[in-house]
Amino acid sequence: MLRDMGGSLVLEPKGEEMGEPIGDLHASASDLRQGRLGGELVARTIDEVPILCALAARAHGTTLIEDAAELRVKESDRIAMMARVLRAFGVTCEERPDGLAVEGQPEGKLKAADIESGGDHRIAMTSCVLGLLADGPTRVRDADNIATSFPRFVGTMRALGARIEVESGGGTP
């Protein structure tokens, strides 16, 4: 999907571990263009749709995500949650029964936001990434469960230059 949107990616396969392919992925800044995610591709990338929404928010044109009704019954209703998150950052989007239409804003800063992740780790991580593009501090609430899929997320983001504070006792980045 990212390649279809004009993203610069190079994959170096490194073999398999536990029956899964592994490798190194090299990405660099790219001017993204609108894309369409649907059919078999959306089924294979269903858990990556939130971060694809963040990429769509920075692409030229309107990106369509279709055939993704399954997102309504994940850890949260990820279609509704991503529509709220994108709008909180000032990104125009249309929530649809089986997906979203996201109007990209390739230039300028997004609006700083206060996001309630609904306890969904993928919504929380995507909100943190979008916060890097905001015109001020962004707060992501109920983000303790990021460790569910990416225990070193905060450390990795810091290593990439993000300034993230974690509230004591709450774990909210």
TrEMBL record:
Residues 11-157 form the Enolpyruvate transferase domain. Pfam families: EPSP_synthase. Keywords: Transferase. The keyword Transferase applies. This is Enolpyruvate transferase domain-containing protein.
